[in-house]
């Protein structure tokens, strides 16, 4: 008595192959749909904005006249903002992840903390804006400065960085820790010499994704009261500033149709900045990537 | 015994000389007294009494889950990396209880090296793998490091195979070579005891043979405790054998005696392959 009738298997093979092909096509379609949306978006923005894109667009301040409007203040402001957000969020995020993964006892409290960090990643950005307004702008009297906005943005992306870093740290094989501890290394030596070098690609990927989110966020900046029209460059972190998404938001809400082109040009600049950030991440990641 | 330590480590082992001479009277590196260990509610080691002799190969055999690896990992307190582990009793290493509050695990582990079941080199160059131990213990001088690396690789009988590729990633060599790199890495901290947790279970027969020959070489200078699933291996390379079953030591004697004339019926059943 055989359970597998090979004739039947052959007869049913066609049906199985059809189902196989159907699902392959479905998944391809899903990918194409996403890709199409992206291509249409890019096409619209590039065709609208390319005419306004010039060197003077990068070097001019904002203006009432669309043909004179430039993005200098916003571009420099966003760079300042990132200069505060990147170190603050990465140091706090990686530190928290290291504590939770390597030092903290695995009990109900740490599980609770972990769960809440994941939940925080889903909190709307406007809520973080309100938090920043209460704590940094008002209570700590930082005003609508780069520092206040930077700290608010850091809070916003901190959960993402912590979760990504935790994953990266957890994925370092336990055997490597064993080998290090087995030779009498302290926890700190094991972290700096073994765990962090192995986890850095993952940590960087998560951090850059989070920073990309921070550079494109508008809502928290609006709540904090970051101005749009600024005719000077910030000289320090306590100065007020404006950022790329604020500037783009302002241009796109103006009635003159020419400003739509200016907004599109601004979006191109923002996307180029994002692309640059991601390339830096890829370069650093490739440099550190090592196989186990 | 301390003369076997190849490099100048006066600073590192100042207290060790005294310990060593103290221990030579009993000739035991480890004396285990009434050791009990629990993983949570699971009583994994029960009233272990075991003396490990110096400059011998001690094999620990027994079926899966009998506690042999747990016991080995208790000897350098690596077992404590598992949360919820509790111990009672004493393990005297050269006369000093390793569970004493003032006995740092880092200190213990510089004297007790470990080789793991799966080759686990660091994702670094061969050189950096060997130099890792000396470096974490504060040796920065390049010349001394070079010397330690060569000495350790020679000690693990792999120098000739890798001497021209020290800067290559340790993952670029075969599994058997990786395991000898791991042994060399353990030798680089100039330990007194080497713990081996089924060091050949992931290796092919030829690599296994090389490691077994190496163990015979190493016991001149080190005391070796090896956990193995392979009874022929225990018979081939060890001087003494302990048979573990369900967290207890059933029998511990000279390897010849254990394999030719065991006193306990269960030992006989196990070594003759009737269970396990």
From TrEMBL, chain A:
It comes from the Bacteria. Residues 75-280 form the ABC transmembrane type-1 domain. SUPFAM superfamilies: MetI-like. Its main location: membrane. Gene3D superfamilies: MetI-like. The chain crosses the membrane at residues 21-46, 73-100, 120-140, 146-164, 221-241, 262-284. GO terms for biological process: phosphate ion transmembrane transport. It is a multi-pass membrane protein. Keywords: Cell membrane, Membrane, Transmembrane, Transmembrane helix, Transport. It holds the Pfam family BPD_transp_1. It is found in: Cell membrane. GO terms for molecular function: phosphate transmembrane transporter activity. GO terms for cellular component: plasma membrane. PROSITE patterns: ABC_TM1. Signal peptide: none annotated. NCBIfam families: 3a0107s02c (TIGR00974). Belongs to the binding-protein-dependent transport system permease family. CysTW subfamily. This is Phosphate transport system permease protein PstA. It comes from Planococcus halotolerans.
Automatic annotation (TrEMBL), chain B:
GO terms for cellular component: plasma membrane. Residues 24-271 form the ABC transporter domain. Gene3D superfamilies: P-loop containing nucleotide triphosphate hydrolases (3.40.50.300). It is a peripheral membrane protein. Keywords: ATP-binding, Cell membrane, Membrane, Nucleotide-binding, Phosphate transport, Translocase, Transport. One of its GO terms (molecular function) is ATP hydrolysis activity. SUPFAM superfamilies: P-loop containing nucleoside triphosphate hydrolases. It is found in: Cell inner membrane. One of its GO terms (biological process) is phosphate ion transmembrane transport. InterPro entries: AAA+_ATPase (IPR003593), ABC_transporter-like_ATP-bd (IPR003439), ABC_transporter-like_CS (IPR017871), P-loop_NTPase (IPR027417), PstB-like (IPR005670). Its main location: membrane. Part of the ABC transporter complex PstSACB involved in phosphate import. Responsible for energy coupling to the transport system. PANTHER family: ABC TRANSPORTER I FAMILY MEMBER 17. This is Phosphate ABC transporter ATP-binding protein. It comes from Planococcus halotolerans.
């Amino acid at each position: 008595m055989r359970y597998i009738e090979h004739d039947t298997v052959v007869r049913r093979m066609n049906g199985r192959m059809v189902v196989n092909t159907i699902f392959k096509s479905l998944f391809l379609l899903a990918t194409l749909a996403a890709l199409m949306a992206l291509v249409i978006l890019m096409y619209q923005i590039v065709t609208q904005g390319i005419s306004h894109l010039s060197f003077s667009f990068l070097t001019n301040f904002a203006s009432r006249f669309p043909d004179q409007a430039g993005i200098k203040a916003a571009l420099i402001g966003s760079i300042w903002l990132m200069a505060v957000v990147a170190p603050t969020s990465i140091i706090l995020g990686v530190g928290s992840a290291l504590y939770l993964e390597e030092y903290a006892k695995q009990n109900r409290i740490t599980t609770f903390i972990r769960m809440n960090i994941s939940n925080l990643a889903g909190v709307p950005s406007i809520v973080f804006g309100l938090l920043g307004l209460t704590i940094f702008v008002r209570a700590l009297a930082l005003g609508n400065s780069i520092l206040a906005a930077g700290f608010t943005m850091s809070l916003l992306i901190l959960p993402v960085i912590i979760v990504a870093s935790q994953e990266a740290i957890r994925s370092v094989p336990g055997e490597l820790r064993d080998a290090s501890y087995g030779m009498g290394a302290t926890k700190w030596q094991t972290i700096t010499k073994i765990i962090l070098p192995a986890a850095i690609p993952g940590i960087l990927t998560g951090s850059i994704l989070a920073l990309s989110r921070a550079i494109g966020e508008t809502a928290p900046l609006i709540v904090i009261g970051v101005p749009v029209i600024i005719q000077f460059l910030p000289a320090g972190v306590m100065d007020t500033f404006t950022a790329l998404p604020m500037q783009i938001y302002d241009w796109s809400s103006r009635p003159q149709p020419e400003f739509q082109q200016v907004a599109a040009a601004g979006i191109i600049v923002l996307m180029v900045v994002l692309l640059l950030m991601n390339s830096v991440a890829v370069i650093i990641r490739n440099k550190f990537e090592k196989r186990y | 015994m301390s003369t076997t330590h190849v490099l100048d480590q006066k600073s590192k082992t100042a207290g060790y000389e005294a310990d060593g001479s103290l221990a030579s009277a009993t000739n035991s590196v480890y004396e285990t007294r009434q050791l009990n260990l629990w993983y949570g509610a699971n009583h994994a080691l029960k009233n272990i009494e075991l003396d490990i002799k110096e400059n011998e190969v001690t094999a620990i055999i027994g079926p899966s889950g009998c506690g042999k690896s747990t016991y080995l990992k208790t000897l350098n307190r690596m077992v404590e990396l598992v949360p919820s582990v509790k111990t009672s009793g004493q393990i005297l290493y050269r006369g000093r209880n390793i569970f004493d509050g003032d006995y740092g695990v880092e200190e213990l582990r510089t004297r007790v090296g470990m080789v793991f079941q799966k080759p686990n080199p660091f994702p670094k160059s061969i050189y950096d793998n060997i130099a890792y131990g000396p470096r974490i213990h504060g040796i920065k001088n390049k010349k001394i490091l070079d010397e330690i690396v060569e000495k350790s690789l020679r000690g693990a009988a792999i120098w000739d195979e890798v001497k021209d590729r020290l800067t290559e990633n340790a993952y670029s060599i075969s599994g058997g070579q990786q395991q000898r790199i791991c042994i060399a890495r353990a030798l680089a901290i100039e330990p007194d005891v080497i713990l081996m947790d089924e060091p050949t279970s992931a290796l092919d027969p030829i690599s296994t043979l090389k490691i077994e020959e190496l163990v015979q070489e190493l016991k001149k200078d080190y005391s070796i405790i090896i956990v193995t699933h392979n009874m022929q291996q225990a018979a081939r390379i060890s001087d003494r054998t302990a048979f573990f079953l369900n967290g207890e030591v059933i029998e511990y004697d000279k390897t010849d005696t254990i394999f030719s004339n065991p006193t306990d019926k269960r030992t006989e059943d196990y070594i003759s392959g009737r269970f396990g």
